From TrEMBL:
One of its GO terms (molecular function) is oxidoreductase activity, acting on NAD(P)H. Residues 1-22 are annotated as: Disordered. Keywords: NADP, Oxidoreductase. Residues 10-320 form the Enoyl reductase (ER) domain. It comes from the Bacteria. The keyword Cell wall biogenesis/degradation does not apply. This is NADPH:quinone reductase. The lineage of its organism: Bacteria, Pseudomonadati, Bacteroidota, Cytophagia, Cytophagales. Pfam families: ADH_N, ADH_zinc_N.
């Protein structure tokens, strides 16, 4: 099989396309034929050497969709459609940047769909992140106002659609006014050009503040985002587009406004039920949700795909077809 191997941390040019034996599943594992996978910012950080504990060489990739080739237990049948994500995939063991991969059964999500593989490949982690952030962490309700900071990211674009469909008023940010139409086409009620200070523009629209905030930029903007929330509201930090993991000299009493709650969502800790994934796939098939796919690459174009992800110019989810 072909695999995109990262021998050491560094730039996108470090990837090497290698011929490797197809791996053999052991007890509790399943061999998958990888049909598509999406790129994720966490993989960019791993590539740069910013993910603690990852040993190299490593085949990256924290998610994929594909078909079962072999399950020693017989629980999954050959040809069955499945998604796989997280659970140490692409970090603790080799992941999806390959034609075949072996994964623990615990991270599999069976599904049924007639969607083409590129669309399916955009779904697993993006869906998990949006569902977990909006429903499990923020517990959104119809009639609420939601600020999405980092709105033009693939997660931000999907979150705006899901929130709009749930009856929320969505404020979404971009650093470029030229991307305003992209945000409104994906469900944003109001578009805010982000210069690092959103309190004024948000309060002009919502004098008391917004009910909920989905923070996708990260630690660098989190304090300003929390200041935009009304008393009793909730902010969820999910993304790290700024590639900043921590807050220097964090002083909670000064950082978090009184009665505002701060939480996070991490699909490595809590995931959506398999039934929710199937429901989401069904909604895509029915045209109720549009998947924002930026570009589609082949496996031998993995370096170019990573460069596009790093440039923040994809305009949607980047998908690779091995």
């Amino acid at each position: 099989m072909k695999a995109a191997v990262l021998p050491r941390p560094g730039g996108a040019d470090q990837f090497q396309l290698e011929e490797r034996p197809v791996p053999t599943p052991q007890s509790g594992q399943v061999l998958l034929r990888v049909r598509a996978f999406g790129l994720n910012r966490s993989e960019l950080m791993t590539r740069k050497g910013l993910s603690p504990g990852v040993q190299f060489p490593r085949v990256l990739g924290i998610e994929c969709v594909g078909e079962v080739v072999q399950d020693p237990s017989g629980q999954y049948q050959p040809g069955q459609q499945v998604a796989a994500l997280m659970g140490g995939m692409g970090r603790d063991y080799d992941g999806s940047y390959a034609e075949y991969t072996v994964v623990p059964k615990s991270i599999l999500y069976p599904f049924r769909s007639q969607l083409p593989w590129p669309q399916l490949g955009a779904i697993p982690e993006m869906f998990q992140t949006v569902y977990g952030s909006l429903h499990l962490a923020l517990k959104i309700q119809a009639g609420e106002t939601l600020l999405i900071r980092g709105g033009t990211s693939s997660v931000g674009l999907l979150a705006a659609q899901v929130a709009r469909n749930a009856g929320l008023t969505v404020l979404a940010t971009t650093r470029s006014a030229a991307k305003a139409d992209l945000l409104t086409a994906n469900g944003a009620t109001h578009v805010l050009v982000d210069n690092g200070q959103l309190l004024g523009p948000v309060r002009a629209l919502c004098p008391e503040g917004v009910d909920k905030v989905l923070e996708l930029v990260g630690a660098t903007t989190l304090q300003d985002s929390l200041a935009c929330i009304k008393p009793g509201g909730v902010g969820c930090m999910t993304g790290m587009l700024s590639e900043s993991w921590s807050i220097p000299d964090f002083a909670p009493m000064e950082f978090i406004p009184a009665t505002v709650s701060l939480t996070i969502y991490d699909s490595g800790q809590i995931t959506a039920p398999a039934a929710a994934l199937q429901t989401f796939i069904d909604s895509v098939e029915a045209g109720q949700v549009l998947l924002g796919i930026g570009r589609i690459f082949s496996l031998d174009q993995i370096a170019e795909a990573h460069q596009l992800m790093e440039s923040n110019a994809a305009g949607g989810k980047i998908v690779v077809l091995p």
